[in-house]
Design a protein that fits this description.
Elements lengths: L2 H24 L2 E8 L10 H5 L3 H7 L4 E8 L4 E7 L8 H4 L4 E7 L5 E6 L3 E4 H14 L2 H7 L3 E4 L4 E6 L2 H6 L2 E7 L11
Parallel strand pairs: 1-9, 6-7
Antiparallel strand pairs: 1-2, 2-3, 3-8, 4-5, 4-9
Length: 193
C-alpha cells in the first residue's frame, strides 16, 4: 500500500474512533427541564428570603437568565448548566453590587424535591467583576486581592458553562431543575458605591 493510501486509512480510523467515542458519551448526557429560579410562596426555604426583602433581588436578576439549558452527565455525576446573561442589571443599587451565588434545586418527575444546594463560589457580571477588581487592587496588597477573589467568577453576557457534582442517586431520578441567582453572605470590604 502506498503512503497516500496509508494516510487516508489512518485518518479514517481516527475519524471512526472519535465518532464512536463522541456518540457513546452522548448517551450518558441527557437534557432535563430547566427553569430560572423563582421564589415559591409555599417553600419553607424561601421564608427567610421573603422576610429579608430579597424577593425583589430574585425577581430582578433571575428573569435576565436567557437560553438556560441543563443536562445531567450520568457517567461523571455532573450537572451541566449553560446560559446567557446579557443584562447589566447587576449594576443597579448597593444590594446588587455584591457577588451572588447560585441556588440549584433538583426535582423528580412528580415535582418532589430531591435536593437543593447553593454554590460556594460567587458570581458577578463580567463588567462589575472588572470594576470591583480594579477598585480592590487600588487599596489592597496582591495577596489580599487573591484571597478576596479566589471564589469569585464573572458571568459573561453569552456562553456561561458550569458543572456541579451531584450524587448519581439524585441524577438518576432528576427530571427538572430550578436554577437562579441567590443572595449570599459574601461582601467586599471595599464595595463600589
Amino acid at each position: 500500500m502506498n503512503l497516500a493510501k496509508k494516510i487516508v486509512c489512518f485518518k479514517l480510523c481516527v475519524f471512526l474512533f472519535v465518532f464512536i467515542n463522541i456518540n457513546g458519551c452522548k448517551k450518558n448526557i441527557q437534557e432535563v427541564k430547566a427553569d430560572a429560579y423563582t421564589i415559591h410562596k409555599d417553600s419553607m426555604h424561601d421564608a427567610g428570603y421573603r422576610q429579608q426583602g430579597l424577593k425583589l433581588l430574585s425577581e430582578t436578576l433571575n428573569p435576565e437568565i436567557k437560553n438556560l439549558k441543563i443536562s445531567k452527565d450520568m457517567e461523571n455525576g455532573k450537572l451541566i448548566i449553560t446560559f446567557d446573561y446579557p443584562s447589566q442589571k447587576w449594576l443597579m443599587g448597593t444590594l446588587m453590587n455584591t457577588p451572588k451565588n447560585f441556588l440549584i434545586r433538583l426535582f423528580d418527575k412528580n415535582g418532589n424535591i430531591l435536593t437543593y444546594f447553593e454554590t460556594k463560589e460567587t458570581y458577578v457580571s463580567e463588567r462589575l467583576y472588572s470594576k470591583l477588581l480594579a477598585s480592590y487592587q487600588e487599596n489592597a496588597s496582591p495577596e489580599a486581592v487573591q484571597i478576596q477573589f479566589q471564589n469569585v467568577y464573572p458571568i459573561k453576557p453569552h456562553g456561561n458553562n458550569f458543572m456541579f457534582s451531584v450524587s448519581l442517586k439524585d441524577l438518576e431520578y432528576l427530571e427538572h431543575v430550578e436554577f437562579g441567582i441567590n443572595e449570599t453572605k459574601f461582601t467586599f470590604s471595599n464595595m463600589i458605591e
